[in-house]
Design a protein that fits this description.
CATH superfamily of the largest domain in chain A: Response regulator
Distance between the termini of chain A: 61 Å
Order of helices and strands of chain A: HHHHEHEHEHEEHEHEHEHEEHEE
Strand content of chain A: 5-15%
Number of helices of chain A: 12
CATH class of the largest domain in chain A: Alpha Beta
Oligomer: homodimer
Number of strands of chain A: 12
Largest sheet of chain A: 6 strands, parallel
Helix content of chain A: 40-55%
Structural class of chain A: alpha/beta
Strand order of the largest sheet of chain A: 2-1-3-4-5-11
Largest interface: A-B, 44 and 45 residues
CATH topology of the largest domain in chain A: Rossmann fold
Shape of chain A: elongated
CATH architecture of the largest domain in chain A: 3-Layer(aba) Sandwich
Chain lengths: ~325, ~325
DNA sequence: TTGTATGCGTTATCAT
DNA sequence: ATGATAACGCATACAA
């Protein structure tokens, strides 16, 4: 691997001049610039990222924190981020927090050592209070998740609106007893709270009661979906519709419901969230709320690049719209 | 961030001694060693990876190349690798080749600049001939994919055996007309060829003919699965069973088949490959061939670590077994 | 067993 | 506009 000295020698110039060309400094004669570029090309030279990092420079690597890569929503999100980053010649370091506070912090430390220029957090485990200090070492963008600090660049979806649209759809289908599953506690904050708000808003508008036993908290997986159905089977007064927090939960619920002879949507309507590929493969195909994942990824990378270019850029909060995809499960 | 000099000062010793402690050199008095360790702890010191890389050292980062992270098989594989790596205090740089030769090569270049200590390739786009030179800069482990070079450390599954078991299962169910979908050309090499061999072997043993029009090549996605069914609908002589190259293809096929009023498994048996979470959610639940993904990941990391410890370690080829999961689709 | 000095590849500072 | 040189943090050859 040739280094900057090799290029300098090859071009008959100094290392400093070569470095200036690499970094687009002004005050360089066209003549020498071309000489250097020629030499770089001939030698197949690429700057050594470690050396640049050591000097305290940006190094074309961004970090992405996801809770679990096997969750299709995050796999797609990572994909979108990776594509956008690659288009801008950035590399992506992917990290699973596994919903562990310690893991999350350990990854954020990469900012300190300039291993990554910036971080996109698609989930947040620690209090923002504990995360914020790390942003002194490089920009942190919240993607999908968000926090109460208006100074944090954020790309998110209007969860309230999405949940509202979903529940309203169920109400329009004639349902009055609508179950609801959420990822956190019902009284939580952030993304889940917004969804909860949308759920409640729609109920209220239709003058429907909120039955606490129809609210299932801390649900995430396929198995959780099955469990919801089992819980429902034990109820005297069952919901006629279930609004699940993700397509996975919906899929599990659908599977278990059918196993109990419950017809969908006649006996129980099921509404998903995400529009993952499995949604249309289920039987019946799943009505769900599509998240614009690609936009989410692109905008997040965009935000990060903005900060790389201008360290004191203004923080933005991008809000993206949902889309209700009506299929056969409602 | 404290550096090695800070630690040295704090411990009242030289940088060299601190460095020796960090790198577990022999010939250090217990006394000083503890002094240094104490100082490191007190200052919260962590070696700067960029500096180590620059110095030409291993840096606890491994790279993983996948074709597409949104493919659940690879998402689970990456997850397994990441968990195993984390347990050994290694970080994982994930890279999507998008099945592009250029992207693959661009990532392998990270080996040259010591950005990663070694690479796990879960797919191979370029000729091995073009990839091999990079292994001079760090070990490359083939995982799931493999090549004809016995000197390459490899962790793979016995594809022939897996395919054989699957087809045999279909034959035992009474099928004589068995369709087959594969990811590459039927005459290809590597992983897919092995599977093809297993398919043919099982047919041969049962004295069944191989009907070329029942072989669907270059199939990967849900849509490909649907397309297979559409092709089959146009045949006068249709297969009564379909052995698909992945659960995704199987899912697509099942969906499309049902749309055409084909009953599963009565009219058409469908056998998957992978045992992804969706397999048991399909209706009917999918009979499939389980790949021991976690083992695949763990063993790959193990191989890599072996080479890190001993640069001239012997190349191994680990073969892992499949498992036939019988559900209701066959 | 420990310390000193040098270099890894870059970029920034200071000259010119 | 260009060049010489120091510094980033670390690990090693060499000296002691």
């Amino acid at each position: 691997m040739p280094n900057i000295s090799d290029v300098a020698k090859h071009a008959g110039l100094s290392k400093a001049t070569v470095s200036r060309v690499i970094n687009n400094h002004p005050y360089i004669s066209k003549e020498k610039r071309e000489l250097v570029q020629q030499a770089m090309k001939e030698l197949g030279y690429h700057p050594n990222p470690s050396a640049r990092r050591l000097r305290g420079h940006l190094t074309s690597t961004i970090g992405v924190i996801v809770p679990r890569i096997v969750n299709p929503f995050f796999a797609y999100l990572v994909n979108a981020i990776e594509q956008a980053a690659y288009a801008n010649e950035y590399q992506v370091l992917i990290f699973q927090s596994d919903e562990s506070r310690e893991k999350e912090i350990s990854f954020l430390n990469l900012l300190k050592t300039k291993q990554v220029d910036g971080v996109i957090m698609t989930s947040i485990e620690n209090d923002w209070h504990d995360i914020k200090p790390y942003s002194a070492y490089g920009p942190i963008v919240c993607c999908n998740e968000y926090v109460q600090d208006p100074l944090v660049p954020t790309v998110k979806l209007n969860q309230t609106e999405g949940a509202y649209a979903g529940v309203k759809h169920l109400i329009e289908r004639g349902h009055k007893k609508i179950g609801y599953s959420t990822g956190a506690l019902f009284a939580g904050e952030g993304r889940d709270k917004d969804r909860n708000d949308g759920y409640q808003k729609a109920l209220k508008e239709a003058d429907l009661d909120l039955n606490p036993s129809w609210i299932f908290v801390n649900k995430h997986t396929i198995d959780d979906g099955k469990q919801i159905i089992r819980q429902m089977m034990n109820m005297n007064d069952r919901p006629t519709a279930l609004f699940s927090g993700s397509d996975e939960i919906a899929a599990g619920a659908m599977s278990e419901a059918k196993a109990h002879g419950i017809r969908i949507p006649e006996d129980l309507a099921i509404l998903g969230f995400d529009d993952q590929p499995i949604a249309e493969l289920l039987d019946p195909p799943l009505t769900t709320i599509r998240q614009p994942i690609d936009d989410l990824g692109e905008k997040s990378v965009e935000q990060l690049l903005r900060f790389f270019k201008d360290k004191s850029a203004q923080s933005e909060c991008v809000d993206l719209p949902f889309e209700l995809i009506v299929r056969k499960s409602t």
